[in-house]
Amino acid sequence: TLSLHDALPILMKTIDKLKQIIAEYDDLDINKINTKDRLVNDFGFDSLETAELFIQFQHEFGIQFPEAISHNISIDELAVYIDSAIVRKQAKEKRFLMFSEKKENEN
């Protein structure tokens, strides 16, 4: 598990990448994007725009988002979700590799 000291730089990198994607998507000044900004309420994105953004997020971070995720999520909430999903995905892959290696050693 990551300590807060180790996790914070990763979270900040994710936030910076999200801000970059949003700024490029809507031609915004990245320095005026706040981590508390919400995709719908603060940026005014409609459902098509948020769907397009989530597709970009999926490609950038290599994770899937559940349909139930709020499209009015804030940037910082989204970053926490993404980093948590990446950690879960890596843990799952690690368990799969350990299981595969164990099976190979048994044969």
Mean pLDDT: 87
What fraction, in percent, of the residue positions are helical? 55-70%
Query: What kind of sheet is the major sheet?
Result: none
Cα(first) to Cα(last) distance is: 32 Å
Helix and strand sequence: HHH
Low-pLDDT runs of 5+ residues are none
Radius of gyration: 17 Å
- Tally of contiguous helical segments: 3
The gross shape turns out to be elongated
Portion in beta strands: under 5%
Oligomer: single chain
Number of strands: 0
| Category by helix and strand content | mainly alpha
What does this 3D model show about the protein?
- The chain is mainly α and about 110 residues long.
- The protein is about 65% helix and about 0% strand.
- It contains three helices and no strands.
- The protein has helices spanning about 5-25, 45-60, 75-105.
- Helix 1 (about 5-25) crosses helix 3.
- It is elongated, with a radius of gyration of 17 Å.
- The model has no long low-confidence stretch (mean pLDDT about 85).
Topology readout:
Blueprint: H1 4-26, H2 47-61, H3 75-106
Helix pairs in contact: 1-3
Briefly summarize what is shown.
This protein has 107 residues and is mainly alpha-helical.
